[in-house]
Structures are given as structure tokens and as C-alpha cells.
Amino acid sequence: MADVKTYDMTGKETGTMTLDDGIFGVKVNEHLIHMAVLQYLANHRQGTQKAKTRSEVRGGGRKPWRQKGTGHARQGSTRAPQWRHGGVVFAPVPRDYSFKMNKKEKRIALKSALTSRVEAEKLIVLDELKIDEYKTKEVKKVLDALKVGKALIVLDSLDKKAIISARNLPDVATCQADSINTYDIMKYSTVVATKAAIEKIQEVYA
After folding, report:
1. Of 96, 129, 157, which closes a domain?
2. Residues 92/49, Cβ–Cβ less than 8 Å
3. Whether 86 and 133 share a structural domain
4. 187 within 8 A of 179, measured Cβ to Cβ
């Protein structure tokens, strides 16, 4: 069992918390982390790019000149790719970039990502995160006290004041413990989680 230090909102050390090795102490599988990040990005691609091929461009139904005797190269249509306003060769069409990973692979990737943050000492556990007002400076004050810049704040429940207060910070994101994902863990250099959030992660992903 790994132990991590716990802090209050002023950045003062308050004790330690024991983490479940089945989630925060697994063997890091870099390949599955890479696949999970790739899947997240691919699944968010719109894939709506489109250009017209020669069969879709308007016009060009008539042969521009006879086959022989003009001195020109033979042409069948003014909408062939070599003509101005012609179609595009191998034009891009709407497509789905998403692919699937099985549940076991996703879970291993998530546990590997969390373990990597523990090993790098980039997991900070807060006793609690209580924001009384809808003010960005309140969240900024807590992160400055913890000496954290780019951070993923993990909450145990839907805390609107914390979420709205943090969303104006360009290098900070928030998520709930039961919807945490590998991409966000790897994107942000530090994970800041409350004790209740850690307990919920251990409960959900055990």
C-alpha cells in the first residue's frame, strides 16, 4: 500500500492517506495509455471534411472537342481533375475515426495513468475543496498554495461553485471521480483530488 501526503486548502500538510495498490500501484502499461489517449482523440474527431470528385462536380457532360485532329490532347470532360473547376482526385469524404477498446484495456490504462502520477509524485490529496463563492481567484489561491500550475481537479460530486470557479483558468480542468479518464490524467501534469474523490475512485474502479 502506498501512502501519500494530504494537505488542506492553505497548502499545509495534515497527514497521510493510504492508497489501494490495485488502482494506484499497478504495473504501468504505456502501450494501453497511448491507445486510450488515441481513442479519446479519435472519438472526438468530427470527420465531416468533404470535397467533390469528378462524378459530383456540376457540368462537363459534353466532350469538349472531338477525339482526333484538333492538335489538343484528348479530353472526355471539362470536370476531370486536370481542369479548372474540375473534381478532386481521391477527395476526402465524411468518415468515422472512432475505434473501440475493451473495458479491461480501458481500466488497465486508467489505473496505469493514475499509478504514473503517484510514482512521479504528481498526485496531491486535499482534505476537502470547499469554495464558498463563484470566484476564480478562490481556486487560484488554493492551487498557488499547493504550488501547482497545470492541474486536473478531481471532485467526489457535482460541485458547481468549484467547477464554475475553475473554468476560467486556462491550465485547469475539473472532473468527477466516477467520470475520470486517461486522457485528462495524462494531459494535466498534476492531479489534485479530495480525499472523498480518492475513496470514490477506489470504490468505483476496484
Report:
1. 96
2. yes
3. no
4. no
Q: pTM of the full predicted structure? A: 0.81
**Dihedral (C-alpha) 157, 158, 164, 169: value to the nearest 10 degrees?**
40
Structure confidence by residue, pLDDT tens digits, 148-162: 888 999 998 888 888
132 and 36, same domain (yes or no): yes
Domain check: are 136 and 110 in the same one? yes
Same domain, 119 and 34: yes
56-89 as b/e: b if 16+ CB within 10 A: ebeebeeeeeeeeeeeeeeeebbbeeebeebbee
Both 71 and 106 in a single domain?
A: no
Q: Is the pLDDT of residue 83 over 70?
A: yes
Phi, psi values for residue 88, rounded to 5° = -100, 135
Tell me, what amino acid is at 192? V
Q: Collect all residues with Cβ–Cβ distance below 8 Å to 196 and sequence separation of at least 6.
A: 128, 156, 157, 177
Q: How far is the C-alpha of 133 from the C-alpha of 65, rounded, in Å?
A: 76
Question: Nine-digit cell at 172?
Answer: 485547469
